[in-house]
Amino acid sequence: MEIPALLKMGGCEVDVFCAANSWAVQNSFYDNWINAPENEDEFVEQLITLVTRGGLQYDWVIPGEDVVLELLNARITDEQLFYKMLPLTKIENRQLLGSKAGFSNLCAKYGIKTPAYLVYEEGMSASEIGKKVGFPSLMKVNSSAGGYGIFKCENEQDITAHLAKIENKDNLVIQQMIKGYDINTEVLYKDGELIVYNYSKTTVIMKEFGVSTQRLFYHNTEVEQELIKAGRSLGLNGFGNVVFMYDEVKKEHFLIEIDVRPNTWMYYGKFTGNDFSEAVRKIINKDLTLIKQPDEFKNKAITISLYKKDVYRCIMNKDLGGLMKWVFNVNNNWRYIPNYDRKLKKATNKYLYDSFMELFTHRIKKVTGTVRGD
Length: 374
Description:
Layout: H1 3-9, E1 15-18, E2 32-35, H2 40-53, H3 66-75, H4 79-85, H5 100-110, E3 117-119, H6 126-133, E4 137-145, E5 148-153, H7 156-165, E6 173-176, E7 180-190, E8 193-197, E9 200-205, E10 212-218, H8 224-234, E11 239-247, E12 252-259, H9 276-284, E13 301-305, H10 307-316, H11 320-327, H12 342-368
Parallel strand pairs: 1-2
Antiparallel strand pairs: 3-6, 4-5, 4-6, 7-8, 7-9, 7-11, 9-10, 10-13, 11-12
């Protein structure tokens, strides 16, 4: 929902193709909205028609969700149309789009450092998996996202139990779990060249392996060469989120995920000295050099909380302390409220109010005995 503002501030004219209930149009920063059909086949057909025969010469098509990337990747066979609509300049690497196994195999192909992993094959025993990957490990279904479809395995019994629950084991990945913490790098590439990136440590999440709602941003260039290598090797061409695990024992970063789509955090790069709108302007001007973080940010650690997601987390988890941080502007939280856009702020506040009332009503029903269970 913040990406249209980021693009407009970067000098773009923005059209949004989505359904009426999408957050992508709950803002004031797009020029035109094209109402997309709910049916997947019709969605893809209408989008391709819009881009290829719609009368408008779009310079940039940005798939905003994993499911859209997967639908387009499955449908498009023409190479030039692939480069027009999908965020890669190397069609031979298209297995990166929506496939955990594809990502792991490509990293091995290009010598990109990742934790030990294997792609499950029918008949593999828990003992065999444990010997190859070790414990603890993470089991990831092929199209897992946002923490869903990811299972932690502490021992062979966990592997056996999770395998029994997973119906579709095609391209199932089991990956060594690094003892350390997540490092997120929001990125923007053009033709494989890295233009800007943020570096942050996840500090608050919705649930284990789930969506992060607060991150600590600071200056660190240790992954810069790895990001440059990944962009050029894979042919990355657009927004993305590249996730590393920092091994606290080995003092090394291991790449664990690449999502080639925009996310909410990119808008907030303007608070960290890594302005994605400035990067968009550089791309428009055909300047593909990397933005260097200004010196004033190099000794700062900046805590950023997402207003919509973090307040929602506080409501759902009954985190009164977290809510008080918003009330009393702890960590300068108020500047992350979308006051720059009245329409977006109104939609966000309505969403949070409705979430609170839904939880409150449920609690009242439990007290009165009309709802049973936890």
